[in-house]
Design goal:
Number of domains: 2
Distance between the termini: 25 Å
Number of strands: 0
Strand content: under 5%
Number of helices: 9
């Protein structure tokens, strides 16, 4: 059962590819149905683990990555339903499959340390994961903007122009996704700081005591916040829209991926509960 979401995400990716190439309405509906089924089964798996463990199964890097995949799938489905645009699915699906594969290979049920039993921690983790999902959408939208811009600039309209929304629509989607992600990231960081400050004076746990900017994961998350803060500033004040905003979104999410996988698994001293 735990590997079923991965299989369904892979299936959805194949069908989204067929839809993107052939522009078949039937394939498009099947792609949406496949991804919806994957997200539904993934929700069921998370629910089972929640009942089994007595808390949300977000402890550990593997569980956090799996939760991120679930949030990204749900966020993309919401975007698809509200915009009636399925073309981005071919870019989203490989990311879902890749990250869910990493999570599945290292997934273990872990009992949380008692120190983690806090609503503040739950709010911190959920806010950051939702922010990362929004940034993933912004990155994918940014990539599609660059692909479409290059085709339009060459004056040889064809593959991407026939399949992707207009440049203006794509840029607007990027701006909205970044704004929502930045808001949740800011809230998540603020809640995390409050949680740590409440814990540190009375704990001897070395992981909590290591929570500072010198820890690689905390430093990387703050760096992510700085990149997206600059992107919002540059978009609104300097006028950096379009390609510049797209590249900043790609840069920010590349840092998110580094934070989630290599740093989360191997480098952090404070987030290895």
């Amino acid at each position: 059962m735990t590997n079923l979401p991965l299989l369904l995400y892979f299936t959805a990716g194949v069908v989204y590819t067929v839809f993107f190439v052939r522009r078949s309405p039937r394939a498009g509906r099947l792609a949406t149905a496949s991804l919806s089924a994957a997200a539904f089964i993934h929700t069921f798996v998370i629910g089972m683990r929640t009942v089994e463990m007595g808390h949300l199964p977000f402890v550990g890097t593997a569980s956090a990555i799996s939760a991120f995949v679930w949030m990204l799938a749900v966020a993309y489905l919401y975007t698809e339903v509200t915009t009636d645009e399925r073309a981005l699915g071919v870019f989203i699906a490989p990311l879902l499959v890749g990250l869910q594969t990493i999570s599945s290979l290292s997934a273990t049920v872990r009992e949380p340390a008692p120190i983690l039993d806090s609503p503040l921690l739950a709010a911190h983790v959920l806010s950051l994961l939702f922010a990362y999902a929004a940034f993933a959408l912004a990155c994918v939208v940014g990539i599609t903007y660059v692909l479409l811009f290059r085709e339009l600039k060459s004056k040889q309209l064809g593959f991407f122009a026939a399949r992707l929304p207009s440049l203006h629509a794509v840029d607007a989607m990027n701006g909205r996704a970044v704004g929502i992600g930045w808001l949740f990231l800011t809230v998540g960081l603020a809640v995390g700081v409050v949680w740590v400050l409440r814990l540190q004076p009375g704990t001897s746990d070395p992981r909590v005591l290591a929570m500072s900017l010198s820890d690689p994961k905390i430093f990387m998350v703050v760096l992510v916040w700085a990149v997206y803060s600059f992107e919002i500033y540059a978009r609104r004040v300097i006028g950096w829209t379009g390609r510049r905003a797209a590249w900043l979104s790609a840069l920010g999410f590349s840092i998110v991926l580094v934070t989630l996988v290599p740093v989360g698994y191997f480098l952090t001293e404070s987030h290895n509960f």
